[in-house]
């Protein structure tokens, strides 16, 4: 089995490149946290810090905060890639079942392919994090205590191994449940795209129930913010905690309800474009709507990333504004916030790009068929641009719910504290995020179309045996 799995991976390594890149990016961030943790626990570092009179906790508090965020983002990114990787190869394993392979063999083969992909990315990430660590870890520690005489960074031998293990294990864990489903799914249902309606309906009901619960939690916290004065929760710290709790609950609800919310956005966009002469753009939105169940897997991490960045910036900037109003001249350092924003943005964009690339591996044949039907190259590009724009716009609109929740809490608490409303809306960050998402998704969707657009549809159709 190992020989066949290795051959299958070697034959289709290009389609796994985006997934390997995501694993490499995420494990690089994880590896930097592991190196920082290992170095701040080293005896030489402790001796230097004690001599400088700086508490070791100052180096650990901020690194633990950023490390926790990276761990959560890594878990989401790697499990999403793991699920998407299994989903896109389920038809291949359905053929194995048709040829007599046992469910156990299919399950093992599924996880073996995923392990190969994760290992390639994790090894790259561990190597990069070790090299970058010689600059990043000292720079981070100097920023925490610029006057301390710290020793040069020394990489710990077990840090790269721990990084690889964490990266591979997380990605494989994300693919376990889809692998079980792939091994137990009848071949006819796996080969037929419409064969999972009952299972999909059951999971939809569970998602809606869980999403409604978290919406109620967020609504309750917003109501509580209206009584901040009576509750004695008008300090900047109380406002921040309440805003993050409420908007975090809304963010979880958005992630759970993403397929339904995205379908509504696509339906509205298609309804608007259908009344305009932009036929190719309308067709692109319709294509996104037809793939809503898989696109939701793409859009969910993107919406969660945009929503998380938006609610964090809204909460932190509003707290800084409230603090300055209560205590003028107070200095606020947002370095850690921007570090978290950068981490979330890179990971969520990379994850969405990888999932789109996996789902778009057969798009070359689709584009060739559209060309054969008479669609010009400019129209194909317009279709792809509108499809990627619809996905980016859907993610941004869905992400506005947790941001609006944070802003509402901040407005209520600041009014109770000052008698006036202070809210710092992250308009610029959300706009940049939407544009960056559109460009990344457009490039990823355009790659499979490059060959038929360059050589014409006949080459692609012959290659696919059409």
UniProtKB/TrEMBL annotation:
The keyword Cytoplasm does not apply. Keywords: Cell membrane, Membrane, Transmembrane, Transmembrane helix. Residues 65-187, 339-456 form the ABC3 transporter permease C-terminal domain. Its main location: membrane. It comes from the Bacteria. Coiled coil: none annotated. This is ABC3 transporter permease C-terminal domain-containing protein. It comes from Rhodococcus rhodnii LMG 5362.
């Amino acid at each position: 089995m190992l020989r066949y799995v290795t051959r299958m991976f070697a034959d289709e390594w290009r389609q796994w490149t985006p997934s390997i890149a995501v694993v490499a990016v995420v494990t690089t961030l994880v590896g930097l946290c592991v190196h920082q943790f290992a170095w701040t626990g080293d005896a030489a570092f402790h001796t230097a810090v004690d001599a400088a009179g700086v508490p070791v906790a100052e180096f650990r508090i901020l690194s633990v905060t950023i490390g926790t965020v990276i761990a959560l983002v890594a878990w989401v990114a790697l499990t999403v890639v793991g699920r998407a990787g299994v989903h896109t190869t389920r038809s291949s394993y359905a053929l194995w079942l048709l040829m007599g392979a046992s469910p156990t063999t299919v399950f093992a083969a599924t996880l073996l392919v995923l392990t190969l992909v994760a290992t390639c990315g994790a090894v790259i990430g561990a190597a990069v994090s070790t090299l970058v660590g010689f600059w990043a870890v000292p720079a981070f520690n100097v920023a925490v205590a610029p006057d301390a005489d710290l020793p040069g960074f020394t990489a710990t031998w077990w840090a790269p191994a721990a990084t690889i293990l964490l990266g591979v294990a997380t990605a494989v864990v994300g693919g376990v449940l889809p692998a079980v489903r792939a091994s137990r799914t009848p071949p006819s249902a796996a080969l037929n795209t419409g064969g999972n309606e009952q299972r999909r309906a059951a999971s939809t009901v569970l998602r809606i129930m869980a999403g409604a619960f978290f919406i109620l939690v967020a609504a309750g916290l917003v109501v509580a913010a209206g009584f901040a004065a009576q509750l004695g929760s008008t300090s900047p710290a109380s406002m921040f905690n309440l805003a993050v709790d409420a908007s975090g609950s809304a963010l979880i609800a958005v992630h759970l309800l993403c397929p339904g919310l995205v379908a509504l956005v696509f339906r509205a966009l298609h309804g608007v474009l259908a009344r305009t002469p932009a036929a190719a753009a309308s067709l692109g939105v319709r294509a996104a709507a037809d793939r809503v169940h898989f696109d939701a897997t793409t859009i969910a991490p993107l919406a969660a990333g945009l929503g998380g960045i938006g609610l964090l910036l809204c909460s932190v900037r509003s707290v800084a504004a409230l603090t300055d109003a209560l205590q003028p001249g107070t200095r606020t350092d947002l370095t850690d916030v921007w570090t978290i924003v950068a981490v979330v943005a890179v990971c969520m964009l990379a994850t969405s790009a990888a999932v789109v690339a996996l789902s778009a591996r057969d798009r070359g044949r689709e584009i060739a068929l559209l060309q054969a039907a008479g669609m010009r190259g400019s129209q194909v590009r317009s279709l792809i641009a509108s499809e990627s724009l619809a996905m980016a716009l859907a993610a941004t609109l869905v992400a506005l719910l947790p941001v609006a929740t944070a802003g509402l809490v901040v407005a209520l608490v600041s009014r109770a504290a000052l008698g006036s409303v202070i809210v710092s809306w992250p308009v610029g960050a959300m706009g940049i995020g939407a544009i960056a998402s559109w460009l990344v998704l457009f490039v990823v969707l355009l790659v499979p179309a490059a060959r038929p657009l360059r050589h014409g549809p006949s080459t692609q159709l012959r290659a696919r045996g059409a």
